Amino acid sequence: KLFFTDYGNAAKVERCDMDGTNRTWIVDSKIEQPTALALDLINKYVYWLDIYLESVEVVDYQGRRRQTITKGRQMRHLCGLAVFENYLYTVNSDSLSILRIHRYNGTDVQALARLDNAKEIRVYQRRTQAAVRSHACEPDPSGAPGGCSHICLLSSSHKARTCRCRTGFILGSDGRSCK
């Protein structure tokens, strides 16, 4: 799945399959300017930062069990969001510091370090990386990803795929080759 935020005409948090199909709104009320998003892959939670409402909130992958983690003026200048173990990590663009927020007790906010011009934060840890299994976009014997001549996108599961073409090409009737 692909998760993303939008604060155009109607602010929301959405998800879709990797090929863009099955687009679903998971949060579309009491949300104004969601600017950062983080996933808890193990427990299947979506965290987001709303800088207009000055809050960090969470829902499950279906948009249920919504909770506010923390709220207040200190959220106004935050950008980027990452989750690891019991904490959320974000960057305060005003004080140029990395903040750690306890995700079960949002009142525990600590500044960890100071950085210049940071706008995003990511946590890389072996336990957060999904194990790679065989999938529909693996190269075929000729080296084409998923048998697609240009681009292979996973769709509803790791066993299903959609072929797409680069700009200027159209997908052939076989659903795999580009012309």
From TrEMBL:
InterPro entries: 6-blade_b-propeller_TolB-like, Cueball_EGF_LRP_Nidogen, LDLR_classB_rpt. LDL-receptor class B repeats lie at residues 1-43. PROSITE patterns: LDLRB. GO terms for molecular function: Wnt receptor activity; Wnt-protein binding. GO terms for cellular component: plasma membrane. GO terms for biological process: canonical Wnt signaling pathway. This is LRP1B protein. It comes from Ploceus nigricollis. The gene is Lrp1b_2.
